[in-house]
Amino acid sequence: MKVIEKVSEMQNWSERERCAGKRIVLVPTMGFLHEGHLSLVREGRKRGDLLVVSLFVNPKQFAPGEDYKNYPRDLERDRKLLERESADVLLRPSVEEVYPEGHQTHVEVERLDQFLCGAFRPGHFRGVVTMVAKLFNIVRPHVAIFGLKDYQQFQMIRRMTADLNFDIEVVGHPIVRETDGLAMSSRNTYLNEPERGAALCLYRSLRKAESLVRRGERQGKPILDAVRQEIGKISLARIEYVHLCHPSSLEEVEKIDDEALLALAVWIGKARLIDNTIFKA
After folding, report:
1. Is 106 a catalytic residue?
2. Contact yes or no for 54/139 (Cβ under 8 A)
3. Checking DSSP bridges between strand 89-91 and strand 50-55, what pairing results, if any?
4. Same domain for 221 and 133?
């Protein structure tokens, strides 16, 4: 596995491989890899000739007071995991390499940014989308793969890719869960033992909603009430939002007509956890 730290070196590598007719797949990550990330890596291996995994904790997507400095990092462990999965390139640039002195350009997806996490984390998605746009220009992949746990992020990147005419296939990969149902996340490491048990309320609430829909419920209010009630049983849990919305526009819906996304964000201790599921009528 080749380790690249410089933007120019990554661009030169990609240009050579594209000219040789190779299909390049990109998996962007912030590192501290878990099985969810590795499932994206394995999917990437299937979709092209060469696999690039980026590892960059992006300061532009953390607001003041958020966990940028404390975000878990373990570069050596990540490198070994990616070698085991036969990644071709690990791209791990420094902050100074990505955002050199004088950097002042950003990318925003205006409408989709107003919903779900965007309403509670001002500037977060501007940082995410700017970084992904930069990665697309640095790596020049044919395919880019993103996990669907952050469903809003996925939809915003799809929108940005279409709006800016990037000739890149953006692929969403299903949520990977622990055996007890908790969605895998690097931030799960913030949870102590009681909090880890409390965090299962997210998955239980989604399952409860799924049960209602299977029994024929299509109105949003009883579904959302059931989710809030299930989470409310846990004293350690603090709901940030629970929304039923259109899967593409992310606008709230009152009932499930065709498809609907149930998305939630819940604080457990100092960990902000998100999860979601999609219902079909």
Report:
1. no
2. yes
3. parallel
4. no
Q: Does residue 250 contact residue 261 with C-beta atoms inside 8 Å?
A: yes
Q: How far apart are CA 140 and CA 153, in angstroms?
A: 20
- Please enumerate, as own/partner, the contacts of 104-109 that have beta carbons within 8 Å and a separation of 24 or more: 105/130, 106/60, 106/130, 107/133, 107/160, 107/164, 109/156, 109/159, 109/160, 109/163
Q: How far apart are CA 274 and CA 23, in angstroms?
A: 33
Asked if residue 201 and residue 160 are part of one domain, the reply reads: no
54 and 139 in a single domain? The answer is yes
* Residues 131 and 60: beta-carbon distance below 8 Å: yes
Q: Where are the beta strands (DSSP E) in the chain?
A: 2-4, 24-29, 50-55, 89-91, 143-147, 169-173, 237-245, 259-268, 271-280
Going by C-alpha positions, the residue among 121, 10, 116 that lies closest to residue 65 is 121
| Percent of the chain whose predicted confidence (pLDDT) is above 70 | 100
Catalytic hit among 37, 124, 173, 243: 37
Q: How confident is the model at residue 281 (pLDDT cuts 50, 70, 90)?
A: confident
Would you state the structure tokens that stand for residue 207, as one six-digit string?
């399952």
Compute how many other C-beta atoms are within 10 angstroms of the C-beta atom of residue 68: 14
Residues 135 and 224 in one domain: no
Distance CA 263, CA 23 (A): 34
Side-chain-facing half-sphere of 57: CA atoms under 13 Å: 16
3-state secondary structure at position 276: strand
Q: In angstroms, rounded to a whole number, what is the distance separating the alpha carbons of residues 49 and 16?
A: 13
Name the CA radius of gyration of the chain, rounded: 19
pTM above 0.85, yes or no: yes
Evaluate whether 245 touches 189 at the Cβ level (below 8 Å). no
* Tokens describing residue 177: 């869960």
Range of the domain at 209: 186-280
210, pLDDT greater than 90? yes
